[in-house]
Amino acid sequence: MDVVVENLPLYLEGFSVTLLLLAVGGIGALVLGTVIAAMRISPIATLRVVATVYTEIIRNTPLTLVVIFCAIILPILGSELPYLIAGMIALAVYTSPFIAEALRSGINGVPIGQAEAARSLGLGFSQTVSLIVLPQAFRMTIPPLINVLIALTKNTSVVGGVGFVSELFGVGRTLANAHGDAVIAVLVGVAFFYLLVTVPLGFLATRLERKWVVQR
Amino acid sequence: MSGAVVLFDAPGPKARRLSRIFSVVTAIVVVAGLGWVFATLNAPRESGGVTLPGMFDPTRWDIVTDPEMWGFIFTVGVWGTLRAAIVAAVLAIALGVVLSLLRSSPIAWIRIPTAVVIEFFRGMPVLLMMLFILLVAGTGQYWAVVSALAVYNGALIGEALRAGLVALPRGQREAALSLGMRPLQSKMLVEFPQAFRQMLPIIVAQLVVLLKDTSLAYIVGYPELLRVTLNNLGSYYGNRYLFTLWCIAFVLYLAMNLTLSWFARWLAKRTDRRYHPAKGGPAPEDPSQALLVADANAAAIEDRSPR
């Protein structure tokens, strides 16, 4: 345990990089994912096709491959992005289809009778969407979105693993190499910080989801 | 809300023509964008006084005619990936079955620690587990990869099966007990088979995730598809082929994962028709979302009827 206490500043530094990756990657993915979701329900056929193909491809590509593309292949193609930024881009791109699906499933979760009732009361398109559908869809998308963020938290480790960003996993690997006699303590320390984010979020997601389940 | 038609009036001829025009314009823009990317990548570049050929230049792609390279990729790379994925999948399902039974045990001393263990493994990055097993257990890369994948996915499958067990109608167990079965017999012979079949789509979708996650083995140094193409072949043929090799790995991964995803989707549709003819069913492609719904359902049922 001494190793963890001695290197606590290093851990915290790694943890803050992980949180930074989580925040920027998450916001990027949220923006991209919203665009993809909007494209998927748009009346323009080409946009729908493009969004579907994008979703299918990214979803079936391993994250490692995406991160390697951003960290190793992009510099060959002439980009001069720092690794941290490349990692953020990789995370945002990889996570965006999952966000899009979470949003779509939330909107699909609103019973069709709600929109029908609104329309039969004489509400127009924008009124139906903004007053009836979106408020209900929004609540239902929160748990799936939290779920995506949990996955993203775990995925930040890949950025540290492939590249040269010393976030939690990177710090753990360096410390484990430096302290060969205390590998267990070092890595359990790393695990603790990940669990600090993922477990509370997991409980929150299940709790909120359970509320909606009961209401349905 | 699957029929978005409800939201607005059916489009008239003018609106339909407008959307068709937009459609064509978007298609042109997309094709032009792809063409631009292709052209940019293909343009020769100056680097330190040397002119490098474009990314799609034949000199960068001549290795694809080398049968030895393909042999190496398939016998070492693809086989390495599949070997790890298959063994890990079998172990994960076995572990999931055991965990789900322990997790739904009537004895609190078994149930609660199992729940804690499952939560612990669900919340950890697989990569960290791989590194842990590699460094602490000293098993070698193959078993580090396989056991980390098995433990992580086993915990998720166990949780899914547990939710499936809870969601079964109470009458199943009551009927089994009233026929004179012991609680364990009822669980193994009556409840578990039904839960397993209901949760099969989630399990298969989770196996797609497992297959994708084998690529993490690249980081701990197990020779699977990614490491074989990028590192081994990359250093054999030279760095200028890296882009080509990445593309090859990309296409191969896509082929493997898409096949398994389509199978999962087909299976989900089939199971859905049989078991939930009325309900829409959760989106099977993202098992973590389906698991979230199953978990919440189980929690709601448990609240209503304390054991």
UniProtKB/TrEMBL annotation, chain A:
Membrane protein topology class: Multi-pass membrane protein
Q: Pfam families given for it?
A: BPD_transp_1
The family database entries (SUPFAM superfamilies) matched by this protein are listed as: MetI-like (SSF161098)
This protein's UniProt keywords: Amino-acid transport, Cell membrane, Membrane, Transmembrane, Transmembrane helix, Transport
Task: Give the residue spans that cross the bilayer.
Answer: 15-39, 60-77, 83-100, 182-206
Q: Does the keyword NADP apply?
A: no
The protein's matches in InterPro entries, at most eight in alphabetical order, are given as: AA_ABC_transptr_permease_3TM, ArtM/GltK/GlnP/TcyL/YhdX-like, MetI-like, MetI-like_sf
Transmembrane helix found in the keyword field: yes
User: What compartments host this protein?
Assistant: Cell membrane
**Residues annotated as domain ABC transmembrane type-1:** 15-205
Q: What is its main location?
A: membrane
Which family does the record claim for this protein? Answer: Belongs to the binding-protein-dependent transport system permease family. HisMQ subfamily.
Which PANTHER family does the UniProt entry name for this protein? AMINO-ACID ABC TRANSPORTER PERMEASE PROTEIN YHDX-RELATED (PTHR30614:SF37), MEMBRANE COMPONENT OF AMINO ACID ABC TRANSPORTER (PTHR30614)
Q: What is this protein identified as?
A: Amino acid ABC transporter permease
Q: Which organism is it from?
A: Agromyces allii
Q: What is the lineage of its organism?
A: Bacteria, Bacillati, Actinomycetota, Actinomycetes, Micrococcales
TrEMBL record, chain B:
Which InterPro entries does the UniProt entry name for this protein?
Answer: AA_ABC_transptr_permease_3TM, ArtM/GltK/GlnP/TcyL/YhdX-like, MetI-like, MetI-like_sf
Q: Which UniProt keywords apply?
A: Cell membrane, Membrane, Transmembrane, Transmembrane helix, Transport
- Give the residue spans that cross the bilayer: 21-39, 69-102, 114-136, 241-264
Query: Has the keyword Transmembrane been applied to this entry?
Result: yes
The UniProt record lists the ABC transmembrane type-1 domain at 78-264
Report the membrane topology from the UniProt record. Answer: Multi-pass membrane protein
Q: Does the keyword Cell membrane apply?
A: yes
What subcellular compartments does it reside in?
Cell membrane
Q: Which family does it belong to?
A: Belongs to the binding-protein-dependent transport system permease family.
Q: Known NCBIfam families for this protein?
A: HEQRo_perm_3TM (TIGR01726)
Q: Any idea what this protein is called?
A: Amino acid ABC transporter permease
**Native source organism of the sequence:** Agromyces allii
Q: What is the lineage of its organism?
A: Bacteria, Bacillati, Actinomycetota, Actinomycetes, Micrococcales
